[in-house]
Design goal:
heterodimer, A: about 650 residues, alpha+beta, Flavocytochrome C3, Chain A, domain 1, Methane Monooxygenase Hydroxylase, Chain G, domain 1, five-stranded antiparallel β-sheet, about 35% helix, B: about 250 residues, Ubiquitin-like (UB roll), two-stranded antiparallel ribbon, 7 strands
């Protein structure tokens, strides 16, 4: 496979502007002659579909939800970064770029990240104009707070519901285009195949989740905005329906999958309380602005937290990382929590958490101020744990949360299949080996509002005058047959175990061996266990009911089949990378102090994997990363 | 703990439905209502009984996908809480829990506990937005918004679109949902140009699908986000005004 990242020439600051000028345009009257399919209606998909509709393209948007507003972007709590420098604390586009590259442990592309930082300021303008009710100060101007991995306040927020407000803004922009007739919205429609004609993406096959009907849709280009794959771990902060299927089916059709082992384990989630759980709940990173993380210094300390005197508490993040303290980046904070719990300092009934304590902040600012900042998060915590965090410290522990890896895309956000684009979390592009807090919302909206709408024009322009293939083209018939075969195959296994029981077992393997700490031996074991469990799955899964009505087991069964294949690739990728960087921590490669030890000489590359068949070794193509504007350094937050 | 479930089962929109009783035994009290359904569904699958179809996604009370009547109450017994966030420690060992789908003319039933809420999307597409194309926005801090207004707009915007307000309303009215979006946009400076046209259109579509408001207030009591019925008053005021404004404009 040949990889060309198509990074424009010129100085970093001018790349995007120059590129926008040199890209081919589709004139306004010709845009209506093009049709574009957008799969997924989260932040990236809704913003892209809305913007393409405004520009005059014929857009077809697909979501498996009953409404675009359900997408999991809605659950993002803390905020969105932008280099506005409203606080006058030294922020700039270059600083946001630099923080993001460093935060990603130098495994992302300079040019992409710089562009992200550049357009971040436009995102805030756009969202405010849409009526997104960001937090404001008493003068009526926008307020900011701090997030991990930054020493400036650049995070815009709407209480603990920023993702909700941004998604609703994008959703409303999308519904405006639906009303205007420029976007045709297909809900309850799950994409199950990408269709290629003459090597280029020209359509998709979807299954209607209410009727089971399988249909084909053709267009000049296809955009996947289908989110991340952290549900491979089963227990995660992802929504129950989040899955890798659209990206994976594209991968099987030839789209390279990049850095699959780069997953984010978020440090502040409510610890697991039993084996019955179906998902874990995140407590926003923003809480670390005012909460202090600690464990009892004595592992055998059984006293209630309030009874443990200051001198006998270990505020380990403040101790180990004095300059960033409780706002150390996610990967660093997660590993530190794991180390504390592994060493026996864990708290709570299962000794599987650390304290996140607000008593200092309540004393300093008063309970009302804390309630104003985090009220809904405190309520959520109480509903789940039956404990009041104003009185007793929260208990938190890391949990899978985000996927930095995803479909490989070039600077134009196009995958290795011409005409197939990938935006938002579903691509790999901007976060390297670790994403900083409040950067996912930024990237999703940057891709959807401000990048893809330009770059897709450059792809479409030379196709003027061409029609998309008819949906009775043999390529569509073939893809439809594949979908029907898979569905019928799953329905006819008639084994003994539910889909969820397999997913739970798969997730445990991935978590144990490809989670917060990885070893060569463990990863090899994981790969063979995944293969064995996958074989069992296809022999013993039980999917009741039929195709022609709502059948949630059937939906899950197809997704879990894809998770099995992805999980194997995650272990292969983690095995290939003989270094530690960001969220990828190989125990063999660490400093004397237990920090990640990168190997820039051999591993400063993006690992792009090609599909060679289920259970077969995938092919690896490396995109080497060049750093011309930042100096590669050992990341230090001390 | 051991519980008994009475669940509405209905294979398809046109087929007749009925209550079925299932044991939910030996469930951890920290499990949520929906995690209990996951466990029961796994057991039903093993027994060869098709699992109970129910909607859910984020399980954090924010996506608005889940929604069932629990013992006759939308989202169950807890105040300001979506069904996914109701945990079993709020119940007693041996309790029987009755689960039914939302019942409202505007929400036709699809299967078991799943209803079709697409009418909400139609209301939003009838003006629940500010018409601003991507890239045409002015600098964000050019328009200060006083904190009180911004906070109130947020309170309205917090609606998760779950439909509990409609399900709880004896009239099957969607006034709380519609007024929440209208109030958010109508009180912000960005929403002023389209204020009255938006109000008239959204109310018209709302009335096509849903019942009338007669001030029961059940909607606010059922709302997981505690959206205030004050917003309904704001909507009614704007609707009344829109009748004059829009006439003058035309």
């Amino acid at each position: 496979m040949q990889l060309d990242a198509k990074i424009p020439d010129g100085p970093l600051e001018e790349k995007w502007d120059n590129h926008r000028f040199s890209m081919r345009l589709v004139n306004p009257n010709n845009k209506r002659k093009f049709s574009v399919i957008v799969v997924g209606t989260g932040l990236a998909g809704a913003s892209a579909a809305a913007t393409l509709g405004e520009l005059g393209y014929n857009v077809k948007a697909f979501t498996y939800h009953d409404s675009p507003r359900r997408a999991h972007s809605i659950a993002a709590q803390g905020g969105i970064n932008a280099a506005k420098n409203y606080q006058g604390d030294g922020d700039s586009v270059f600083r946001l770029f630099h923080d993001t590259i460093k935060g990603g442990d130098y495994r992302s592309r300079e040019a992409n990240v710089y562009r992200l930082a550049q357009v971040s300021v436009d995102i805030i303008d756009q969202c405010v104009a849409q009526g997104v009710p960001f937090a404001r100060d008493y003068g009526g101007l926008l307020d900011n707070r701090s997030f991990g991995g930054a020493q400036v306040s650049r995070t815009f927020y709407a209480k603990g519901q920023t993702g909700q407000q941004l998604l609703l803004g994008a959703y409303q922009a999308l519904m405006r285009q639906v009303d205007a007739g420029s976007v045709e919205l297909h809900t309850k429609s799950e994409m199950l195949e990408v269709v290629k004609v003459d090597g280029e993406a020209r359509g998709i096959v979807v299954r209607n989740l209410e009727t089971g009907e399988v249909t084909s849709h053709a267009a000049h280009a296809v955009v996947l905005a289908t989110g991340g794959y952290a549900s491979a771990y089963f227990l995660s902060t992802m929504a129950k329906n989040s899955n890798v299927t659209a990206a994976w089916r594209a991968h099987r059709k030839g789209a390279a999958f990049a850095n699959p082992s780069f997953t984010q384990i978020h440090p502040t989630c409510i610890p697991q309380s039993g084996d019955y759980q179906s998902k874990l709940t995140l407590m926003s990173e923003s809480l670390r602005n005012d909460g202090r993380i600690w464990v009892p210094a004595d592992p055998d300390d059984e006293r209630a937290p309030a009874d443990i005197p200051e001198a006998e508490r270990d505020y380990y993040l403040e101790r180990i990382y004095p300059s960033f303290g409780n706002l150390a980046p996610r990967d660093v904070s997660s590993r530190a929590a794991k180390r504390m719990v592994d060493a026996g300092h864990g708290v709570g009934p299962r000794k599987n958490g650390v304290y996140l304590d607000f008593s200092d902040a309540v004393g300093r600012l008063g309970q009302d101020k804390i309630a104003e900042r985090y009220g809904n998060l405190f309520e959520m915590y109480q509903k789940i744990t039956n404990e009041n965090p104003y009185d007793v410290p929260m208990r938190i522990y890391p949990a899978p949360h985000y996927a930095m890896g995803g479909l490989w895309v070039d600077y134009n956000l196009m995958t290795t299949i011409p005409g197939l684009f990938s935006i938002g979390e579903s691509n790999f592009s901007d976060h390297g080996a670790n994403r900083l807090g409040a950067s996912a919302l930024m990237q999703g909206l940057a891709d959807g509002y401000f990048v893809l709408p330009y770059t897709i024009g450059d792809y479409l322009a030379p196709h003027l005058g061409e029609s998309p293939p008819p949906t009775d083209h043999p390529a569509f018939a073939e893809a439809e047959a594949e979908v029907r075969d898979k569905v019928n195959g799953l329905l006819s296994v008639n084994g003994t175990r539910s889909v969820d029981s397999f997913h739970r077992d798969l997730g445990k393997i991935v978590w144990d061996y490809c989670g917060m700490a990885r070893t060569e031996q463990g990863l090899e074991k994981a790969r063979s266990e995944i293969q064995a469990l996958r074989d069992e799955y296809h022999k013993d899964v039980r999917v009741l009911g039929e195709n022609e009505t709502i059948n949630q087991s059937l939906e899950k069964a197809g997704r879990v089949a894809d998770f099995f294949e992805l999980a194997e690739l995650m272990t292969i990728d983690a095995l290939d990378r003989n270094e530690s960087c960001g969220g990828h921590f190989r125990e063999e490669y660490q400093t004397d102090e237990g920090e990640a030890l990168r190997d820039d000489e051999h591993y400063a590359y993006v690992a792009a994997w090609g599909f060679e068949g289920t259970g077969e070794d995938p092919s690896l193509t490396k995109e080497h990363l060049a750093f011309e504007n930042v100096k590669l350094a050992t990341r230090s937050y001390k | 703990m051991d519980l008994t479930l009475r669940v509405w089962r209905q294979p398809s929109p046109d087929a007749p439905g009925s209550f079925e009783t299932y044991p939910a035994e030996d469930i951890d009290e920290h499990a949520s209502l929906l995690e209990m359904l996951d466990i029961v569904n796994d057991r039903l699958t093993e027994q060869g009984v098709e699992p109970i179809a129910f909607d859910s996604d984020c399980r954090e009370g924010i996506c608005g996908t889940c929604g069932v009547m629990v013992d006759g109450k939308a989202h169950g017994p807890m105040e300001n809480t979506a069904a996914c966030q109701v945990h079993l420690f709020n119940y007693r060992d041996g309790d029987t829990i009755t689960l039914e789908p939302w019942r409202a003319r505007g929400f036709p039933l699809r299967k078991d506990l799943i209803v079709d809420r697409s009418a909400f999307d139609e209301i939003i597409s009838a003006g629940g937005y500010v018409s601003v194309n991507t890239g045409s926005a002015p600098e964000a801090n050019l328009t200060p918004v006083d904190k009180g207004t911004a906070d109130l707009a947020f309170d309205a915007a917090a609606c998760i679109g779950c439909g509990a307000c409609v399900a709880a309303c004896p009239n099957g009215a969607a006034h709380l949902f519609t007024s929440a979006k209208l109030s958010q946009l109508n009180m912000l400076p960005q929403g002023q140009p389209e204020r009255y046209a938006r109000t008239q259109r959204m109310v018209t579509i709302m009335e096509e699908y849903f019942g009338s408001c007669t001030n029961y207030g059940e909607c606010q009591a059922a709302c997981p986000q505690d959206i205030s019925i004050d917003f309904i008053a704001m909507m009614n005021k704007d609707y009344r005004k829109s009748k004059f404004r829009n006439r003058r404009a035309s």
